[in-house]
DNA sequence: ATATAGTGACTGTCCGGTCAGTCATATTCC
DNA sequence: GGAATATGACTGACCGGACAGTCACTATAT
């Protein structure tokens, strides 16, 4: 946890610190980011950082948590749990892509904690995020299978896992060079990946998910 | 590229070096691995490493490339391109899981190059791997859609992308703490993830893929 | 004898964290 | 009101450890 001092300084300075830290950590990773450089970007002295946090790792952890909360809020905070599966999937992909385009740094931070030597952060962070989204998606799927809106011959947990995997890989492809290469190879994208192109990709993706979830007897709904 | 010296030393020493380097890099990442520690594990002096490679980064890149070739060989080197989509998917998941369980370090290396500050490696490495697998999977899908074995109302490139995403996330879940947490939350796994449990998970996963690809008119084939 | 592989102490650099001191503001006291 | 005092945010030079890469030297093989 940060020291109390962090919450006593001017709000805009705190916000600047958190944003710059997220950007730098996302760009260079924990080990390659140095505290002097961060302090420089924020416009304060290195020593000040140690008035707010006990260590670089504590700062890193706090920035990650903060970023995840912002992401979760952007996607799930604007969703109506009564919508059917199809609409929720659309919404999650649309809002996710929108947020990720305006704040790629937070997703990158989350991706980074999957890499070597970051396990201690994953343990502290992943559980809560994943539990929340998994729970949500499975509940909606079960409800709509029971209602006959979603085909019920598929394994709920696996379908949820598949949708989430696709979501993660899709979003990551929008922000990470490595994943972008994969997406381009698979989806045969040659031009720019600008907002309209992304919009179109999302429609293709959600359409496919709709078709896969559609009860077999029913005709595809578009 | 490594110096010629690397190929003049005893084969078993070279093999020991490459294996230990893969293990260490996978465990700690590029920046946290130190050359002295690596030399110690291999049982040679640090200076010797610089007789084989010009720099740590060059060694790292070579180890990654080597590992990817071993992985590709294990999965695609044992596959008959004439098999139908279903059998190929089964084979890829089975062989992939088998390889990943015996040599988790290579997949971890591949995952790591997706993280911050590793973009220069991703550019040099990802393209060829992804191109190969994407091409293969899409060709098989197109052939079987034309033959009426696979439903043809889905977007081929996206289906390939989805299967690959699921494959990557699945395999990564077997080796990385962060992804394992996700898998456990989604699939509600509470017990051990030992080989039989993994085997069962693969069957569930490939079964779902089969159902999703099955032509709509046909009854699910199990 | 000579070429080539192997060695490890050494060097320079980088960076996380410290701390003694500064200064602007708040509080107290007359 | 204003002088005296207290508070705590802020600073940045400095320290110590870590580590990539070097090189003068040794060992070995042919």
Please describe what this structure looks like.
The structure is a homodimer of 222-residue chains. In chain A, helix 1 crosses helix 6 and helix 5 packs antiparallel against helix 10. Chain A is elongated and about 65 Å long. Chain A has two domains: 51 residues, Arc Repressor Mutant, subunit A; 149 residues, Tetracycline Repressor, domain 2, CATH 1.10.357.10. The first copy, chain A, contains ten helices and no strands. Chain A is mainly α and 222 residues long. At the A-B interface, helix 1, helix 6, helix 7, helix 8 and helix 9 of A face helix 1, helix 6, helix 7, helix 8 and helix 9 of B. The first copy, chain A, binds a DNA duplex (30 and 30 nucleotides) through helix 3.
**Which chain pair has the greatest contact?**
A-B, 61 and 61 residues
Shape of chain A: elongated
Oligomeric state, counting identical vs distinct chains: homodimer
Number of helices of chain A: 10
CATH topology descriptor of the largest domain in chain A: Tetracycline Repressor, domain 2
* Integer count of domains of chain A: 2
Stretches of chain A where pLDDT is under 50 for at least 5 consecutive residues are none
CATH architecture verdict of the largest domain in chain A = Orthogonal Bundle
Largest sheet, strands/sense/barrel of chain A: none
Please give the number of β-strands of chain A. 0
Summarize the amount of helix of chain A as a percent range.
over 70%
Order of helices and strands of chain A: HHHHHHHHHH
Instruction: Specify Rg of chain A, calculated over alpha carbons.
Output: 20 Å
CATH top level class name of the largest domain in chain A: Mainly Alpha
């Amino acid at each position: 946890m940060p020291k109390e001092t962090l919450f006593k300084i001017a709000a805009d300075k705190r916000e600047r610190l958190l944003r710059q830290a997220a950007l730098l950590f996302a760009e260079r990773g924990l080990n390659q980011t140095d505290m002097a450089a961060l302090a420089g970007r924020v416009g304060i002295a290195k020593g000040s950082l140690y008035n707010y946090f006990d260590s670089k790792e504590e700062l890193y952890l706090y920035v990650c948590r903060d970023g995840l909360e912002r992401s979760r809020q952007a996607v799930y905070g604007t969703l109506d749990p009564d919508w059917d599966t199809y609409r929720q999937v659309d919404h999650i992909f649309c809002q996710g892509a929108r947020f990720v385009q305006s704040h790629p740094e937070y997703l990158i931070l989350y991706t980074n904690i999957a890499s070597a030597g970051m396990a201690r952060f994953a343990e502290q962070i992943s559980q809560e995020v994943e539990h929340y989204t998994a729970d949500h998606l499975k509940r909606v799927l079960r409800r709509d299978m029971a209602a006959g809106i979603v085909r019920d011959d598929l394994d709920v947990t696996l379908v949820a896992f598949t949708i989430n995997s696709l979501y993660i890989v899709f979003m990551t492809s929008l922000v990470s060079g490595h994943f972008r290469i994969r997406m381009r190879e698979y989806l045969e994208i040659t031009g720019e990946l600008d907002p309209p192109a992304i919009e179109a990709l999302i429609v293709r993706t959600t359409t496919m998910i709709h078709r896969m979830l559609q009860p077999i007897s029913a005709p595809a709904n578009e």
